[in-house]
Amino acid sequence: MIEPPVRVCMVCPYSLSRPGGVQGQAAGLARSLRRLGHEVALLAPDGSRPLAPGDGPFDGTWSIGRSVGVRANGSVAPVALCPSAAVRVSRFAGGHRADVVHLHEPLAPVAGYGSLFSRPAPMVGTYHRAGTSRWFKLLRPVGSWTDRRLDVACAVSAEAAATAGALTGRLCDVLFNGVEVDRFAGAEPWPTEAPTVLFLGRHEPRKGLATLLDAFTAVPDPVVLWVAGDGPETLELRRRHPPGTRIRWLGVLSDDEVARRLAGADVLCAPSLRGESFGMVLLEGMAAGCAVVASDIPGYRAAAGGHASLVAPGDPAALGRMLSEAVAGVTGSSGTSSPPVLRAAFDHAEGWSMERLATRYLDLYRRAAERWSATTEGRRRPGILSGP
Asked: Rounded to an integer, what distance in angstroms lies between the CA atom of residue 68 and that of residue 82?
């Protein structure tokens, strides 16, 4: 197996300056692995610290260059497109003699391409994306090549595994997205003056914010809606639903404020219409003690595990009724939700903890090292394995 502590070069193709599911998973996994005693270099676009040379420090968060917005999967992905970013990642991993290179979204341009080509260490890839796009046919040759370069591939959900399989032909290990339970459960609640519903997400059509805003008109006073995030729909939706005593537009929140807002809210609403491979935000809400109302789509259904109220996506009337019932339940006006129910949801979230996920990844890193040692690159790099 790999000698402890493991030196993990973790690569996120998306900018860490923007909130996002993949960014959150990469950063949270890095923190959890460090708490277990391992060294992690997290490489991504737009960080404030340029990559260290091979004789500099390894552990930390490093920038591979600037990002640009690319439309994909109904969203805008902030990725590094300059080939030098891929070269920097490969040279960093090789120069620091990483024990494993862990690529999040291996097909996303271009952060991981250099290390996929040079293979400076055992290669592990995690697929997050679910669903097809107009780029699907063009990506298949890239997916086939990527599959041959990875020693181990996994996906965050069955839906993400199916998408990756269609592109690469590989049957991936299915893990899960992890939630940093302690960060949300221990957050100081943001002060509130009335029952509060929280939306967290990018303001784009697939996230369903327009449906939530229309639905909220049916939720009785004095309930307040917190709308966090921004995006291409922000200006139009703010015009239709201006800020006031009922709707508070919060903008993009820091990680600490996200945790505090979740801890202060009564209900988390996730009204996405499609394109969610896994409902991490649902688990974060449960960990913070929120009742959860979400769209009944596969990724959310899998994460909820029966502990969220699910409604048909894109149905404002049904969503408004469900939000009213959820608020009434957690504020004591009815029996639809109760502390034991919220406690059961919290216990469910604990089962998806980032610490458990980190131990699963350590097993994959060891498996990747065993496979890599039999390759040409591995034979040229003795000493990465311990034991017989």
From this structure: 10
